[in-house]
Amino acid sequence: MGGSIKDRVAIIGMGCTKFGERWNASAEDMIVEAAYEAYQDAGIDPKDIDAAWVGTLWGLTGMTAAKPLKLNYIPITRVENGCATGSEAVRNAAYSVAAGINDIVLAVGFEKLKDQGYSGLDLPFTASGGGLSDDAAGVAPTTTAPAMFAVMATKYFERYGLSPEEGKRMLARISYKSHKNGVLNPKAHFQREISIEQAMNAPIISWPLGLFDCCGVSDGAAAAIIVSAEKAKEFRKDPMYLKALQISIGGENRLRDDYDYTHVEEIYQSGIAAYREAEVTRPREEIGMAEVHDCFSITEAVFMEDLQFSPRGKVREDIENGFFDLDGGLPVQPDGGLKCFGHPIGASGIRMLYEMYKQFQGKAGKRQISNPKLGLTSNLGGEPPGCCISTFIVGGKLG
Amino acid sequence: MVGITSYGAYIPLYRLPLMEIAKAWNVPPRGKGERSVANFDEDSLSMSVEASINCLEGIKRSTIDGFYFATTTSPYAEKMVSTIGATALDFAPSTRTLDFTNSLRSGTGALIAAVDAVKAGSLTNVLVAAGDTRLAQTQGELEQTFGDGAGAVVIGDMDVAAEIVDIVSISDEIIDVWRPSSESYVKAWEDRFAFTVGYSKLIPQVAGMLLEKNSLTPQDLARVAITGPTIRRQQGMGKALGLSSKQYEDSILPNTGNTGTALPLMMLIEALETSNPGDNIMVLSYSNGCDAILLKVTENIKKLKSKIGIKHQLESKKQIPSYQKYLTFKGLVPVAPAARPDRNPVAAVTLWRHRKEYLSLYGSRCTECDTQQFPAQKVCVKCHANDQREMVRLSDKKLSIFTYTQDNLAICTDPPAVVGVVEFDGGGRAAFDMTDRDPGEVKVGMNVEFTFRKLFFNRGIHNYYWKIRPLR
């Protein structure tokens, strides 16, 4: 089918480092760790790779991956699309395979955040403006990442009539679930359960978001080996097929006064495009598991509504009824999510696919979801309103 | 007739009772009153812009053709500062700008220069703004007697509310109160010396000259605005001039402290607020000599009754939460930096390119679909028409908070950093820092207004911009 990626490309090998405070590992160490796990998993030799895409927020050219991996004289492209960077590397790699240009392609994403000296995320300086306006005029408000998502929580509570207590309880239930899943994942940054009360009473970072509403700041890398769907079975019996690779980027809601701050239009649009590409008509029923961009608890709540898993304004019922729990109707963040697995920016999109891949292969250990048909991953780069959203749909079988 | 056609005052929201300073250092309080304290994001210029905004209420900005700024605490030693103010106030590029600095008499000096320019016919409406945030060493007397504030008047020859009848000045070389350019704190020689050979001699001399020249006696004056280092000295002078307390008592020294260059203008504004047509007012502005200015109030004073002057600004106040907060606002104690990345460096090029958008706070309005937007856009956010726009000033628009957060993580001298996404009257939306706020009072839907502030100091550049605050 022209114009669709569905069942044209497959992932035949994946690698993912342990995420967390990797004091004793450099970015290059982690790239090697993830890539070699993927080579071994795919049963390929580095010499077999025709091209590579590397995703990171910082870096200079494809050398970022060429140097540690000694991938000489092949095309390597460095991509960046905010927190959707890892997904963007996979998308470009997959398109080159679908186009018939390359046979075996590596996509690798990584970030080394814990060498910064502080928690949180620094952003590359852009003199011509990546933020609200020209960065070098210095007029952007005094905000941090949590602040720009907290404004959604404030508005969500106000719009749907949730008291601060009710709102914070809903958000706490999201993090409670992710922590429960993280405990089951030896590669996760945080592997500790929390109580809902603990999350609700944690120190405030950006009102109304507290400490446990915010994801980890982590080091890590993840990699995928991509080939055509036709050739996938030559490498392994259980490849993961790509069904939809969508990116939606918006720039104007930030400036518009009809934007509601309780949804992210780019998520909704990328969801619609991904469902169309994967021929999904009833997302809540057909998607068997999802890893979405829970950089903050409120972000996950909004994702559930924008991806049409829950009706608008009603996600609280699904959250509090356990619909997104590991044993619920649609498990979300089975690996612990950004919240507990951690969030090394360039690696996160590929880490999400890694969980889908392991689940389809029945290798998710205590987190194993029984017979998932389709999985969905979705990243949010930037800050609402005006972000970069990737929404991918993957499956263990063709068709 | 040349004189004052409008006035406006600005006193920072925060006040510190002198008793709090006394308690902090175990020293005697210098009175029962309080002093005003500029917020960490305020300085002489930002306060002068605020006073000017109050002064310009109801006046077309395009009618102003001169802007004089006076201070002893200029943010720059070399670089014109009145141009920043003139841009923030959206005056035409043809506006004559000038900084008057280094002397506590700069405020009245600028006013006199404006009177001369209008009398000479070279300018028609000159806005004179004076502001000061003088820094005193902790524990010393000056810490208790200094205050922060600003005053602004328009000098013109149409609809004059107070005619400038006469001016007499004398100059006198003395080192009594001074600050070397290399130092931050104001110094003072022994008060007895300064008082005996300077203050107590010169003021009666110049006041006498002015009265005699105009055949007036002290009893002919409705109000006399006498500057002075302390309430005691100022009241002593009032008595020495043969005035009754009703003529000379002011509410600025006891409630804000000595606001330096701004003091004579603020005292004059207070006098005008309570004046009646026909009143004679004298201003005595002392520092290395003395300016004596005689004014006669006209019927037009009634049109200025709604202006935001001293009374309003004195009443609109909040007690600063603690003496420690005062120390951090003034940068008098080192504060542990937030564990956050450094700010991006500012670039003079970007500041210049966006001076209309960010200093004058202009957004754009699409001429195709009439959608107002900020920051100004080339391609319309609604109908996507390219370059079909007119620029619209937003600094004086009504605003309300659509959503907000209070951030404990961000770099902020007064955490939490409160950021509000605001809706502009007439359309458009953007996020701004919120200042002069009590975090507990911030709510979705609350009305706020713009205030001109200094964001930060980087690469030797003071970066000014607009923040939002609860209505004052």
In words, what does this structure look like?
- The complex is a heterodimer of chains A (399) and B (472).
- Chain A has 399 residues and is of the alpha/beta class.
- Chain A contains 13 helices and eleven strands.
- Chain A has helices at residues 27-42, 63-69, 85-98, 145-159, 164-182, 196-200, 229-235, 265-278, 283-286, 297-306, 315-320, 337-341, 345-360, and strands at 9-16, 51-55, 76-79, 105-112, 204-207, 209-210, 219-228, 240-249, 287-292, 374-382, 387-395.
- A nine-stranded mixed sheet of chain A has the order 3-2-4-7-1-8-11-10-9, sandwiched between helices.
- In chain A, helix 1 packs across helix 2 and helix 5 crosses helix 10.
- Chain B is built from 14 helices and 22 strands.
- Chain B has two domains: 3-329, Peroxisomal Thiolase, Chain A, domain 1, CATH 3.40.47.10; 336-344 and 397-472, OB fold (Dihydrolipoamide Acetyltransferase, E2P) (Beta Barrel).
- With 472 residues, chain B is of the alpha+beta class.
- Chain B is 26% helix and 29% strand.
- In chain B, strand 12 (280-286) and strand 13 form a beta hairpin.
- Chain B has helices spanning 18-25, 44-56, 82-88, 106-119, 141-145, 191-213, 231-240, 245-248, 252-255, 263-273, 310-315, 323-329, 348-353, 355-359; strands at 3-10, 14-17, 34-37, 66-71, 96-101, 125-132, 149-156, 162-171, 177-178, 187-188, 223-226, 280-286, 289-297, 318-319, 362-366, 372-373, 389-393, 399-407, 417-424, 429-434, 447-458, 461-470.
- Chain B has a nine-stranded mixed sheet, sandwiched between helices. A five-stranded antiparallel sheet of chain B has the order 20-19-18-21-22. Chain B has a three-stranded mixed sheet with strand order 3-2-14.
- Chain B is globular, with a radius of gyration of 23 Å.
- In chain B, helix 2 packs across helix 3 (82-88).
- Chains A and B meet through helix 4 and strand 5 of A and helix 13, strand 18, strand 19, strand 20 and strand 21 of B.
- Strand 5 (204-207) of chain A pairs antiparallel with strand 18 (399-407) of chain B.
